[in-house]
Amino acid sequence: MTNFLTPKKIKSLKLAKQAKGTLETVISMIEQNKYCPEIIQQADSVIGLLKTVKKDLLSGHLDACVLDRLKVDKDKTIEELLKIYNLSN
Fold first, then answer.
1. Would the pTM count as exceeding 0.85?
2. Which domains, ranges and CATH numbers included, belong to the chain?
3. I need a labelling partner for 30 at 20 to 30 A (CA). Which of 3, 54, 73, 79 fits?
4. CB of 70 closer than 8 Å to CB of 77
5. Alpha-carbon distance 88 to 84, whole Å?
6. Distance of CA 12 to the CA centre of its chain
7. What is the pLDDT of residues 47-60, one digit of tens each?
8. Cα separation of 59 and 55, whole Å?
9. Are 57 and 8 in contact (CB under 8 A)?
10. Are the beta carbons of 26 and 40 closer than 8 angstroms?
11. CA distance 47 to 31
């Protein structure tokens, strides 16, 4: 594992922060008793952003980390990938 952020992680961090801000907006809208469809639209935006973060992180992991991890501990790496896959469904 390296100590620098890959371009995919930088993108994921930016999107995660955007999702955090949008989630804060959702909370504020609920507290202010805003119109439900508007809140739902913002909530969907958070979900979409987090799905993109998840996809990009998994893609980066498969591209950069898995091969090295397979060499170190194949069984654990396969178990980890299966866990990620099961959580994705």
1. no
2. 9-88 (1.20.58.1000)
3. 54
4. yes
5. 6
6. 7
7. 999 999 999 998 88
8. 6
9. yes
10. no
11. 20
Alpha-helical regions (H) of the chain: 7-31, 36-64, 66-72, 74-88
| CA proximity to 7, closest of 46, 66, 67, 56 | 56
∠ CA 4-8-11 to the nearest 5 degrees? Answer: 100
pLDDT of 89:
54
Per-residue exposure over 13-27, b if at least 16 CB sit within 10 Å of its own CB, e if not = eebbebbeebbebbe
Return the pLDDT at 63: 84
pLDDT band at residue 5 using 50, 70 and 90 as cut-offs: confident
35/68 Cα distance (integer angstroms): 50
Q: State how far the alpha carbon of 10 is from the alpha carbons of 17, 20, 52, in Å.
A: 11, 15, 13
Q: Can you tell me the distance from the alpha carbon of 7 to that of 52, in angstroms, rounded to the nearest whole number?
A: 14
